[in-house]
Recover the amino acids of this structure.
């Protein structure tokens, strides 16, 4: 029972078995009830025929009684004495009836006993002379007909003859046909049920196997991808539009995202190694020259390369933390106040930073990371500005917008998304001394996204940071 096919087949078989047992039981009960009602109707018809003869004044010894094993008829008075009976009827419910039609027989049926006082015999039933009672008394019992005992459905009807004498007619209908019919249906169900369950189990097994065949293909391909580490492979997608098809498509989307992530990570490592190689080689060369010729040591250059290495290491560490999903702090940051403070500290910039509109608005996040975004945007503007750098903070509905603008040539429209990729520098900023390592804008966008906002180029030289208002 370890496979899905086995569990599905077993579960379907059990459910069908319970349903068939319940349905079969209900069918047998309904069939039995209908057949009993039919037997009761037959007995009532036979009893009313005799009762009608009595009501019209036919003498008891002249009554036409249905005879035979399937229709025993007995007529008795209020005291239970048999007034008439079929020739072959020997006993009803174990009580003898005398064996022949008679007016005053010795046999008895019913609750009465011969010889009891019958002072109130005149009108206890409420029937008028020549009337047959509409009510019928149904009950099951046994009868001995021609020496053979069997079960019957009896119908009892009271009638009053023209002389005012009352009699009760009991006619029976054999229950053997009903029991044979019920038994035949029951036997057919007992034979057909196991066969049907075998068919259900087999069909469920085959259908489940066919339905799960694409899943097995997906599993096999995923195992092969894991063994080969080839993320360019994809699992087979079935043509059906069901859950398995959606699973295959989602799996391929996950593989594509994983492949892109791994490829991006490889490029990141390769680019980081390339960026680190140059300042490290330059610093090593300067130190080796300084060891051999102290008078030729370029201390400012060594310090510059060291600072550059420190900044690059800090950028790489921040990117690693962002890629790991580090959540920003949930502090309240006033962007206008942050712009004033950060701008006031940039006294050595080539182009002075001018402040435009600074609307007071708070955002939720990490002040240090948001200050890093502002610093990177201002550094980028300083590289390309001719003589003006301007920063502003405005409120637009539920958003706070920080804009940094310079009067430089601007970013070409086709490059406005590419510049946010890691280690990307445009042609006019490819010199590392001027353009940096190409991580500033990438870090700025990652921080903006982590804070629930966005960063993009509005026009050629206007960078726009949008953040949701705190609270």
């Amino acid at each position: 029972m370890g496979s899905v096919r086995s569990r599905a087949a077993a579960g379907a078989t059990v459910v069908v078995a319970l349903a068939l047992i319940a349905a079969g039981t209900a069918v047998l009960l309904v069939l039995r009830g209908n057949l009993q009602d039919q037997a009761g109707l037959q007995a009532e018809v036979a009893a009313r025929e005799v009762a009608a003869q009595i009501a019209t004044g036919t003498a008891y010894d002249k009554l036409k009684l249905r005879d035979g094993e399937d229709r025993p008829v007995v007529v008795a008075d209020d005291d239970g004495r048999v007034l008439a009976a079929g020739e072959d009827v020997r006993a009803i419910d174990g009580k003898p009836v005398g064996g022949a039609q008679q007016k005053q027989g010795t046999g008895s049926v019913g609750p009465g006993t011969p010889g009891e006082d019958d002072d109130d015999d005149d009108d206890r039933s409420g029937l008028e002379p020549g009337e047959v009672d509409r009510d019928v008394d149904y009950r099951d019992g046994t009868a001995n007909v021609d020496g053979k005992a069997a079960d019957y459905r009896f119908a009892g009807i009271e009638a009053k003859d023209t002389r005012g004498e009352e009699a009760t007619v009991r006619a029976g209908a054999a229950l053997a046909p009903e029991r044979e019919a019920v038994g035949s249906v029951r036997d057919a169900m007992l034979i057909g049920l196991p066969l049907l369950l075998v068919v259900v189990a087999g069909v469920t097994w085959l259908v489940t196997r066919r339905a799960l065949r694409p899943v097995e293909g997906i599993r096999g391909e995923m195992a092969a991808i894991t063994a080969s580490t080839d993320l360019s492979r994809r699992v087979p997608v079935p043509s059906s539009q069901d859950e398995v098809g959606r699973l295959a498509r989602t799996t391929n989307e996950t593989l594509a995202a994983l492949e892109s992530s791994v490829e991006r990570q490889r490029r990141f490592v390769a680019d980081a190694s390339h960026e680190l190689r140059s300042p490290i080689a330059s610093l090593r060369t300067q130190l080796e020259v300084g060891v051999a010729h102290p008078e030729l040591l370029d201390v400012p250059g060594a310090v510059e390369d060291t600072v550059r290495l420190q900044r690059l290491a800090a950028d790489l560490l921040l990117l690693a933390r962002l890629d790991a999903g580090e959540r920003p702090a949930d502090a309240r940051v006033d962007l206008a106040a942050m712009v004033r403070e950060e701008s006031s500290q940039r006294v050595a910039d080539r182009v002075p930073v001018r402040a435009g509109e600074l609307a007071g608005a708070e955002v939720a996040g990490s002040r240090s990371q948001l200050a890093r975004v502002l610093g990177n945007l201002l550094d980028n503007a300083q590289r390309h500005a001719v003589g003006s750098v301007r920063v502003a903070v405005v409120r637009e509905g539920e958003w706070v917008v920080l804009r940094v603008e310079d009067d430089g040539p601007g970013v070409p429209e086709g490059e406005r998304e590419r510049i946010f990729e890691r280690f990307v520098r445009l042609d006019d900023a490819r010199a590392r001394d001027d353009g940096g390592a190409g991580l500033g804008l990438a870090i700025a966008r990652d921080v903006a996204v982590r804070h629930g906002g966005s960063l993009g180029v509005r026009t050629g030289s206007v960078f726009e940071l949008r953040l949701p208002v705190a609270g």
Summary: Residues 99-108, 110-123, 428-435 have pLDDT under 50 and may be disordered.
